[in-house]
Amino acid sequence: MANKNTVEVVIDGKIYELSGVESESYLHEVAGYLNAKIVAFKREFRNYSKMDDEIKGLLMQINICDDLFLQQEKTRKAQREMEEQEREAYAAKHDLINVQMKLEATLKQLEETQKKLAELEAGKRAEEAREQALHEARLEVKEDAGSSKTPEGNKDHAGKK
């Protein structure tokens, strides 16, 4: 069991001993809260000092319960907001994963398309090179055919006959 702390505090001008497992500073904070409530009551109710102690106690209890309920509602609201933010974060993560998967698929498709394009370009260059070689070969044949019609070319042919 935890050690009990005991402190002397002043509440509404009277000295009390508070004991608890909480820290001394916490016990002083509780006493400060009660003193602040009493001061507020004295400002709010002109006859507070003349009221019966039982009525004062009841007013204090009701007011502290009100503070508690207000804080509990704030806590519930904060909890709901946190849960909503968690849902939104989960949805955002889910969307991010979907976008990443689409990106990966698109990148893979792009890579495949680039390979196909490179193959097509290589095929086109090869076809162009073949056409160029064929064209050059035709030109050579035409040149050879044209040179064999020259008079010197005819003598060579005539001598071979």
Largest sheet composition = 2 strands, antiparallel
Q: Percent range for helical residues?
A: over 70%
Strand content: 5-15%
Number of strands: 2
Q: What's the overall average pLDDT, rounded?
A: 90
What sequence of helices (H) and strands (E) makes up the elements?
EEHHH
- The rounded distance between the terminal residues' Cα atoms is 131 Å
Number of helix segments? Answer: 3
Secondary-structure-derived class: mainly alpha
Q: How would the global form be characterised?
A: rod-shaped
Spatial strand arrangement across the major sheet: 1-2
Compute the CA-based radius of gyration. 50 Å
Q: Layout of SSEs?
A:
Elements: E1 5-11, E2 14-20, H1 24-44, H2 53-148, H3 151-160
Antiparallel strand pairs: 1-2
Q: In a nutshell, what does this entry contain?
A:
By secondary structure, the protein is mainly α.
Structure description:
This protein is mainly alpha-helical. The chain has a domain at 1-50. Helix content is 79%, strand content 9%. A hairpin with a 2-residue loop joins strand 1 (5-11) and strand 2 (14-20). The model has no long low-confidence stretch (mean pLDDT 90).
Top keywords for this entry?
single chain, 161 residues, mainly alpha, two-stranded antiparallel ribbon
